[in-house]
Amino acid sequence: MPLHLIYHPPGLYSASEKQALVDDITGIYTAASLPAFWVVVIFRPVAASDFFVGGRGPQSNFVRIVVQHIARNYKPDEVAKMRGFMQKYNDVIEPYTKGKGMHWEVNVDNLPSELWVVDGLRPPFGATEEEERLRRVWAEKNEVVLEGYSVPPIEQTEQSKI
Amino acid sequence: MPLHLIYHPPGLYSASEKQALVDDITGIYTAASLPAFWVVVIFRPVAASDFFVGGRGPQSNFVRIVVQHIARNYKPDEVAKMRGFMQKYNDVIEPYTKGKGMHWEVNVDNLPSELWVVDGLRPPFGATEEEERLRRVWAEKNEVVLEGYSVPPIEQTEQSKI
Amino acid sequence: MPLHLIYHPPGLYSASEKQALVDDITGIYTAASLPAFWVVVIFRPVAASDFFVGGRGPQSNFVRIVVQHIARNYKPDEVAKMRGFMQKYNDVIEPYTKGKGMHWEVNVDNLPSELWVVDGLRPPFGATEEEERLRRVWAEKNEVVLEGYSVPPIEQTEQSKI
């Protein structure tokens, strides 16, 4: 959680600009006590000849960001919270989109927290108070901490099903 | 909204075939009074050695399309509407899949309209009548139109949450 | 259904390792009587300079797998079933992640079965007993079998809507 896929024109960002953008994105989540190492950002260069917006191509002035949230989800009626996040996210990325003369579009998806594995473990995303505590430990150390982690039981009979 | 990611064998489509396919996809949405510039199509060439279907690889005769709908969503019981869309979408892409001797697969996801930003704005996707009106203006001009657009209020206290 | 997108450092897997990993993934679904040809695996090499985890980059020791389930979905309360699947999936991929000195993360999304087309047809994913039967035939033959397949009716009036 979260995954940020950034589709952009090749060469748009220098190495240091990528690092700065990633720092800013990651900061949104660490400010909310999520472990930094849960934040994955993948840049995907798209050749102009493969990029079409509004039926028009080739495009070399568009950035399309697809975000997946897993550890935290919005309930359908949490509209203010959703808008608040999008406002904050947009503030973070504008220097790297508008600031570079690009058009841009972002959307966020809500994915099921239980269908998630990090380094072989179900992360403590916050289903219980104990998990909340453990998540803060992971966030503080910025790595998987096995002390206090107990593997959630799986009903063996369920293992053969999809 | 919508985003169309088309995973295909490298070199399958000429520049003019890409343009024609994009025109046909975009037409589905403009016919429904959505602004053309909301439609993003990204072609993603996949090397045969990276493409596996049914356990078999390398593949060079398969097209996999992943579609994300954001402005409009189907309710779980709108089965006829969903089938109608898939039929229409398939009719549009068959010349570019079956017609080129490819196998193909498409699926569409429903994403939350409130978790969406275009050029820094929450698009008028249709939550109110005023938004419907504004969406038609955007569709007609095929660009962001600020006249009549008012930024939806965000509760400031919500901004720090994820 | 399912789609497995595997974002990995370039050159991490040999051709035979890719095949072995795909065989193991595909086996999960065929064991559950799903047709092998429904399983699509796409490897996506990501240059180190485009890969950031926890704010740190360039990364060349991380594998990020995004899975989409379409034919089968978990209901929100089927937690044991979800954990069972993730355990099984992790067991399958660990030799190709942990076993190669990589960190890794996987998540699975649930996508609407009705918004899905394979080779121009709505697959018999199991909405009825007849579909269950037909799915087993497709699984056995490992291809589309038209005998016994009837196109689900679409209300024509719905075709113009999105």
TrEMBL record, chains A, B, C:
<dbReference type="Pfam" id="PF14832">
    <property type="entry name" value="Tautomerase_3"/>
</dbReference>
<feature type="domain" description="Tautomerase cis-CaaD-like">
    <location>
        <begin position="1"/>
        <end position="135"/>
    </location>
</feature>
<protein>
    <submittedName>
        <fullName>Putative oxalocrotonate tautomerase</fullName>
    </submittedName>
</protein>
<dbReference type="InterPro" id="IPR028116">
    <property type="entry name" value="Cis-CaaD-like"/>
</dbReference>
<dbReference type="InterPro" id="IPR014347">
    <property type="entry name" value="Tautomerase/MIF_sf"/>
</dbReference>
